[in-house]
Amino acid sequence: MLQVKDLAIAHKKDLTALVDGLSFTLGPGDRAAIIGEEGNGKSTVLKLLYDPALVEPYAEWTGEIVDKGLRKGYLAQELTQEELALPVWEFCQSVPAFGDAGPGDLDRAARRLGLDSGVFWDDRAVGTLSGGERVKLRLALLLLDGPDVLLLDEPSNDLDLATLEWLEGFLLDCQVPVLYISHDEALLRRTANVVIHLERLRRRTVPRCTTARIGYEQYVEQRRAGFAHQEQVARKERAQFDAKMEQFRQIRDKVDYRQATITRRDPAGARLLKKKMHAVLSMGRRFEREKEDMTAMPEWEEAILTAFDQGRCALPAGKTVLRLDLPQLAAGERALAQGLRLWVTGPEKIGIVGPNGAGKSTLLKLVAEELLARTDLRAAYMPQDYSDLLLGGKTPVELLAPSGRREDVTRARTLLGSMRYKAEEMEHPAAGLSGGQRAKLLFLSMVLGGANVLVLDEPTRNFSPLSAPVIRQVLAEHPGAIVSVSHDRTYLEQVCTRVLELRPDGLHELS
């Protein structure tokens, strides 16, 4: 059993509080999902629980972590460039449990993860494996150590639809407690039976932690209903308080007027009025004390407050956006698909799906190159890897307002504020921000540019499950065209007007 008692975490650099008062217990059968906005400390909590040395360079913490004798398996969100460059067999040998495992252990671990046992001896670089293959390989290596608890940071990232369904089954069948982070709402709805919600309120300065031993969907509904009831009660109490205060002011003003107009010939009356005024003021102080005990208005962390300009970004229904006829799609010398035809007209919203390694991102890059060169469209491209777009150490303000003009800087700051950036985050190098904060930054650049055609590779992958519904709504309401690759089942259902599957023999429309 893993126990966390009154955990508090703060950044060393500026003492910003990330987490405060976090307490929970994980036992057999628990599948606990950590949710919260980008930059709220979700990954830091997982790292700290696995090995405090991982957060020591940038964070300090207090509280108690009771994990004596527990074997913990930790899946980091990303592999390093050095790890990605290693051959698979060498990467496996860097894991101590792999060296201690016999052929039977390796075979059982591979079968459990749906892998061929020969994968452990593969000569390919780890980085050339599909996202699903990498996650399965790393999980297999974790399981070799016989962990008592699993700590998984974004295991659903980069997984195709089939592997996402496999991951759901793995989590549901897991015999040990699992604490995980995921942005996939369908995965959360189907697997989580404990929700740990990390928030930062009041301009991201006050942390709040909530632990609920219920499913994700039930948690979201209870939270919404609870806030609605709390707001109703708070408004009713304030209305009653305002009515009492108005009555108090009328009495006070009447006594005050009589005091001002009483003559010196009536000292007894003056004394009575003074005594009455003392009682009235005492009543006012009592009302003010009652105000402190009133139900507080509910507080929650808003995700984003921005949208595309409906007029500027609109496309006519008959407008030709894309006519792509591709005899062959290839990555280097390797053929991925034949006979691709992708035609997009007017404000269509296309979602492209397919197994990992099918060539979806390769296809999307070709689409982006063609559309970005067009002068009759304003296209914007959001790749999976943002690093190429955030080079040079520029801050979010500098990237959104390259002119440096006061009005442009003010607008950039206003938009960043709508995305819940703190003032200091606006001045940090953009490349050092969390994946979610960088995604918001690229999203804002598309809004500012008035793009009427969006080319998006996994647009929701770095947004929290609380931000993602707003992002989906904004994209669904975008009046232009969207060509996207996504494994987000909710995005495909709510945003896309057409879903195409990339197969070796081309693109096929799904019903």
What attributes does this structure have?
Rossmann fold, 3 domains, alpha/beta, 511 residues
How would you characterize this protein structure?
Helix content is 40%, strand content 23%. By secondary structure, it is α/β, with parallel strands linked by helices. It folds into 3 domains: 2-223, 3-Layer(aba) Sandwich (Rossmann fold), CATH 3.40.50; 224-292; 320-510, Rossmann fold (3-Layer(aba) Sandwich). The chain has a 6-stranded mixed β-sheet with strand order 5-6-7-3-8-9, with helices on both faces. A hairpin with a 2-residue loop joins β10 and β11 (334-345). α10 packs antiparallel against α11. The model has no long low-confidence stretch (mean pLDDT 87).
- How does the helix and strand content classify structurally? alpha/beta
Q: What is the CATH architecture annotation of the largest domain? A: 3-Layer(aba) Sandwich
Assign a percent range to the helix content. 40-55%
CATH superfamily caption of the largest domain:
P-loop containing nucleotide triphosphate hydrolases
Query: Any idea of the CATH topology of the largest domain?
Result: Rossmann fold
Overall mean confidence score, pLDDT: 87
- CATH classification, class level of the largest domain: Alpha Beta
Percent of sequence in beta strands: 15-25%
Major β-sheet profile = 6 strands, mixed
What is the terminal separation in angstroms? 46 Å
- Low-pLDDT segments: none
Tell how many strands the DSSP assignment holds. 17
